[in-house]
From TrEMBL:
Assigned keywords, A-Z: Membrane, Plasmid, Transmembrane, Transmembrane helix
Organism: Haloferax mediterranei (strain ATCC 33500 / DSM 1411 / JCM 8866 / NBRC 14739 / NCIMB 2177 / R-4)
Positions of transmembrane segments: 21-43
Entry protein name: Uncharacterized protein
InterPro entries: DUF7287
């Protein structure tokens, strides 16, 4: 007798019963339901992953290209720094002071960006916002070196990126906040 004839007979030689089929379908449906129910929790840690990247990109853009003096990354031009933060002057700088902040730093307008240049001028434990005093950057006199909307005080996720830069042979901290 050939193998083909052996398995063609009545239902007594079947390899699967109705119970096996139902059990397989039930296990599959439970597994599929678990995956669908767990999907929001699996993706939750990645919801606000882009704001730290945007903050890092904005700080790199400012410290490495927009505000640099003679192409030296991390060494900021006093004229371009004053023009960026105060909004006046800036001839020869690679941005237009008439453009919105989001266009100047190259981010989508759905993000709010706040940039501040600060350093410990007085010698105490806290850093202070530096100011643009005519052609000089230093302790506050007239124009504070901060740009963008105020940082929200309510419970909201704000990404912060800090970089140490040099302005007119003085160290400073460029702090970028994105929300």
């Amino acid at each position: 007798m050939s193998l083909r004839g052996r398995f063609r007979g009545s239902g007594e030689n079947r390899g699967q019963t109705n119970i096996d089929f139902v059990l397989g379908i039930v296990v599959f449906l439970f597994a599929f339901s678990f995956v669908i129910a767990a999907m929001p929790q699996l993706l939750a840690p990645y919801d606000d992953q882009e704001t730290p990247l945007v903050a890092e990109r904005v700080s790199s853009t400012l410290a490495d290209s927009l505000l640099v003096a003679e192409g030296d990354p991390g060494f900021l031009s006093v004229e371009c720094t004053g023009a960026f933060f105060v909004g006046t002057g800036g001839s020869g700088c690679p941005f237009s002071t008439s453009d919105p902040l989001s266009d100047q730093v190259g981010v989508d307008q759905t993000y709010q960006v706040n940039a501040t240049l600060q350093w410990n001028v007085s010698g105490d434990a806290d850093t202070e916002v530096l100011c643009y005093n005519g052609g000089d950057v230093g302790a506050c006199g007239s124009d504070p070196l901060t740009v963008g909307p105020a940082v929200p005080q309510e419970q909201r996720s704000v990404a912060v990126e800090r970089r140490t830069v040099m302005v007119d042979d003085q160290p400073a901290i460029l702090e970028v906040r994105v929300w």
